[in-house]
């Protein structure tokens, strides 16, 4: 695509994410968004099937969120959170505490999911240090898991199947195990914790769906097992709900489907409905209490410059307004029903090994994708924005997507996958 001058000029200097820039197709120049649609520089429009990396849960440019941003910009776009606070941040913290299960009520704001997980790791390790337990410096994570791209979070992602295998040897070593999905894997995890629990600060898992690891689903029973094992062996349980939080799996938070309360939870992505960068790490009372002391070294020494940004918090509050005013979870259920019906025919196509749906997540898993560039271009040619990765084609649409728009997405996937991939 020949684009405007800013595209030609800027592409010489930008470094794109997750991209081998020698061989990957050049990016498409986006110039506008509306509803569930992305407008390109040539005037063409794409129905967005992945809500900008799972964030834009209410679609783009929602008037209520836009008004909240405008109003906050007029009075105070940002003020440092060191020694000062702001109303949108404190209101948001109170609302999150009320929404989350149990006594998850102490909110530490950051500006990205990876950093939210890093803060959770620091909280978990320092929880034990503050209590005089100096040996608990490891995390227990799971194969198929993904928790971020920073140096600390890379170390708790799947070391073999993930995107960070090149860094082996440069990263701290943590425990990586199989999810306890049956009696054998549960016994193996129990044994690992019995042998090494004194060195483990916390278990961390993505509840119900391991997202970037391949949209891998597991039962709520897995979460109940992890809560039981964490309690049995005296370690903390951290749930990474950066992808699954705010309705994506069919409940406001995925942990609700298991009826458990983690000790720490991380949130981001749909927190601001895809409008601004914001994340949060929320701890239960007993975790927070371990940081209360006359010793200044017992404080949590972390503080991103833009944490609790007032405009971002205003976005998040506006998004929560929409969850209160609109039946977003019923929207998710409707989307799930339609995807289940319209993606199921893909199961009979060549190279398709599985079709699965949970909430507003629809996945077509292939045995391989021969030409990723060609597959992506074919989907764009159908007028949709769907970004396959690894061996999966997936949909995570906005919750207010119309039946017609979703039908275009599912039809495009069926059409393109019917061709050689």
UniProtKB/TrEMBL annotation:
Keywords: Aminotransferase, Biotin biosynthesis, Cytoplasm, Pyridoxal phosphate, S-adenosyl-L-methionine, Transferase
Pfam families with a match to the protein in the record: Aminotran_3
Chief subcellular location: cytoplasm
Modified residues (N6-(pyridoxal phosphate)lysine): 269
Domain of life of the source: Bacteria
Any one annotated GO CC term: cytoplasm
Site, as annotated: Participates in the substrate recognition with KAPA and in a stacking interaction with the adenine ring of SAM: 18
Example GO biological process: biotin biosynthetic process
Enzyme superclass (EC): transferase
Required cofactor(s): pyridoxal 5'-phosphate
Catalytic activity annotation: (8S)-8-amino-7-oxononanoate + S-adenosyl-L-methionine = S-adenosyl-4-methylsulfanyl-2-oxobutanoate + (7R,8S)-7,8-diammoniononanoate
Enzyme Commission number, as recorded: 2.6.1.62
Gene3D superfamilies tied to this protein: Aspartate Aminotransferase, domain 1, Type I PLP-dependent aspartate aminotransferase-like (Major domain)
Subcellular compartments: Cytoplasm
Pathway(s) it belongs to: Cofactor biosynthesis; biotin biosynthesis; 7,8-diaminononanoate from 8-amino-7-oxononanoate (SAM route): step 1/1
Protein residues bound to substrate: 53, 146, 269, 303, 387
InterPro entries for this protein: Aminotrans_3, Aminotrans_3_PPA_site, BioA, PyrdxlP-dep_Trfase, PyrdxlP-dep_Trfase_major, PyrdxlP-dep_Trfase_small
Molecular function in Gene Ontology: adenosylmethionine-8-amino-7-oxononanoate transaminase activity; pyridoxal phosphate binding
Binding site for pyridoxal 5'-phosphate: 113-114, 240, 304-305
UniProt subunit comment: Homodimer.
Family: Belongs to the class-III pyridoxal-phosphate-dependent aminotransferase family. BioA subfamily.
The protein's role, per its UniProt record: Catalyzes the transfer of the alpha-amino group from S-adenosyl-L-methionine (SAM) to 7-keto-8-aminopelargonic acid (KAPA) to form 7,8-diaminopelargonic acid (DAPA). It is the only aminotransferase known to utilize SAM as an amino donor.
The name this protein goes by in its record: Adenosylmethionine-8-amino-7-oxononanoate aminotransferase
Organism listed in the record: Komagataeibacter swingsii
Gene it is expressed from: bioA
């Amino acid at each position: 695509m020949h684009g405007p001058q800013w595209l030609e000029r800027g592409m010489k200097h930008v470094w794109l994410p997750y991209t081998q820039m020698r061989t990957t197709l050049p990016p498409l120049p986006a110039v506008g968004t509306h509803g569930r649609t992305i407008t390109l520089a040539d005037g063409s429009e794409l129905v967005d099937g992945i809500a900008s990396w799972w964030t834009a849960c209410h679609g783009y440019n929602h008037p209520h969120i836009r008004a909240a941003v405008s109003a906050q910009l007029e009075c105070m776009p940002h003020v440092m959170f060191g020694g000062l606070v702001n109303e949108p941040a404190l209101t948001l913290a109170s609302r999150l505490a009320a929404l989350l299960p149990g006594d998850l009520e102490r909110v530490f704001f950051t500006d990205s999911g990876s950093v939210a997980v890093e803060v959770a790791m620091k909280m978990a390790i320092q929880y034990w240090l503050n209590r005089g337990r100096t040996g608990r410096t490891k995390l227990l994570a799971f194969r198929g898991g993904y928790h971020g791209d920073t140096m600390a979070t890379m170390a708790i992602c799947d070391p073999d199947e993930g995107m960070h295998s090149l860094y082996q040897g440069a990263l701290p070593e943590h425990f990586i195990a199989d999810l306890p999905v049956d009696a054998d894997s549960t016994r193996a995890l129990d044994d690992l914790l019995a042998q090494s629990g004194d060195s483990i600060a916390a278990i961390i898992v993505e509840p119900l769906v391991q997202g970037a690891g391949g949209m891998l689903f597991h039962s709520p029973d897995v979460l109940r097992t992890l809560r039981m094992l964490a309690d049995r062996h005296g370690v903390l349980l951290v749930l990474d709900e950066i992808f699954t939080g705010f309705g994506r799996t069919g409940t406001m938070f995925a942990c609700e489907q298991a009826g458990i309360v983690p000790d720490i939870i991380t949130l981001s992505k749909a927190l601001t409905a895809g409008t601004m960068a914001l994340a949060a790490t929320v701890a239960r009372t007993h975790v927070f209490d371990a940081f209360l002391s006359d010793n200044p070294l017992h404080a949590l020494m972390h503080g991103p410059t833009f944490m609790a940004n007032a405009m971002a918090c205003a976005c998040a509050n506006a998004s929560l307004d929409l969850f209160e005013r609109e039946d977003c979870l019923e929207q998710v259920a409707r989307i799930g029903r339609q995807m289940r019906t319209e993606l199921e025919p893909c199961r009979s196509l060549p190279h398709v090994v599985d079709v699965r749906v949970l909430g507003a997540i629809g996945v077509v898993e292939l045995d391989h994708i021969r030409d990723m560039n060609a597959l992506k271009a074919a989907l764009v040619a159908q007028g949709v924005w769907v970004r396959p990765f690894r061996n999966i084609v997936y949909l995570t649409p906005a919750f207010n997507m119309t039946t017609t728009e979703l039908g275009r997405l599912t039809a495009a996937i069926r059409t393109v996958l019917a061709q050689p991939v």
